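Exercise: predict the structure of this protein bound to tricarbonodiimidic diamide.
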Amino acid sequence: MTTMIIDAEPGKISASVEKTALVIIDMQRDFLEPGGFGETLGNDVSLLAKAIPPAKALLAAARRAGMLVVHTREGHRPDLSDAPPAKVNRGSPTHRIGAPGPMGRILIRGEPGQDIIPELYPIEGEVVIDKPGKGAFFATDLGLVLANKAIDTLLVCGVTTEVCVHTTIREGNDRGYRCIAVGDACGSYFPEFHDVALRMVKAQGGIFGWVTDAARVVSALEASAAEAAE
Ligand code: TIU
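Solution:
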């Protein structure tokens, strides 16, 4: 086992590289690019771009370390049979889920907009989880995948911080995983929600988990690799 010690709040966390998974939440064109689901809801999607370089650095480090990498994608079946009417009919978006848009049908599996942005595109051997809800555990086989790999710790990043990232951390925490939010590799359409969502995770001694940043994870992985090489 290769141990890494990640500097984080509310305190350092020691984890086995082999028992840790990087879970990248919904870094999809539908949320990060114009013409997708995020924009139909009235959001300025350019606000999410600053999460891409830290997420890229984190992904590269996880790949070098041989860590399990899981990518998630929010989206629905083309016939919308897995999309709750309460979700589809919510609010007054410019285009509803399933409507045609410039990147294909909004938030529909298999459409270009529902896929992961090129900068973070999965490679062979990485797990892609299609999820109908905000949390990555709800109605997916993520728990089974993690159990089969004996994972006990999740490094979680992606978009949006207070919606799908937060829901997944809450779900993971209740399932017994130690969840570490990688703050600068997360993004939100609402900077104040991003900040307070991360504060919520680490408050009360780490009520939902830990918060760190990509550079601190990368340096923990580099230190563990250097030690293993000695
Ligand atoms: N709207 C918003 O902030 N987020 C979502 O709808 N899904 C995710 O966070 N992925």
